[in-house]
Design a protein that fits this description.
single chain; alpha/beta; Severin; 2 helices; globular
Length: 147
């Protein structure tokens, strides 16, 4: 994709995960600093709720299994902040999600090298909002699209 500055991405592996395992149960929490434009990717067996701020602008992702096989489920909280703020948050998430997905794929690149078939797994994003106009479940390609 080319938007990611690898020098501004910090990756933390928490207890129970390695650069290769597990697949199911592997969870990603991506947060950022508005001041420094740094990205913080935490990979663990649980989401890194300790990294989430009141802004609720994190990206959460995890590997899930469906009848069609493995897929990357991504969750973003557009919210319940009123029509104007929800519209802005939705637009910002949609603009920044390619960078977020690139950060996840790059930050966990050894995992994808060990499991190359996951480069072709679908990415499904759930946009969560109290406003039904912003509640969406959308296909966003595969990890290969974000390398």
């Amino acid at each position: 994709m080319g938007r990611l500055d690898p020098e501004k991405l910090y990756v933390e592996f928490r207890s129970g995960v390695t650069t290769a395992e597990p697949v199911l149960g592997r969870k990603y929490t991506l947060t950022h600093s508005d001041l420094t434009a740094e990205l913080f990717l935490t990979i663990g067996l649980k989401f890194a709720y300790d990294q989430i701020t009141s802004m609720r602008d994190e990206v959460l992702a995890e590997w899930r299994m469906s009848s069609s096989g493995l897929f990357l489920y991504v969750y973003v909280y557009v919210g319940n902040f009123g029509p104007a703020v929800n519209a802005v948050r939705n637009a910002v998430f949609r603009r920044e999600l390619p960078l977020a997905l690139e950060a996840i794929v790059y930050g966990d690149n050894q995992f994808f090298a060990v499991h190359p078939h996951l480069n072709h797994a679908p990415i499904w994003i759930y946009f969560d909002s109290a406003d039904p106009g912003y509640t969406q479940f959308e296909y966003w390609g595969t990890p290969l699209n974000y390398q």
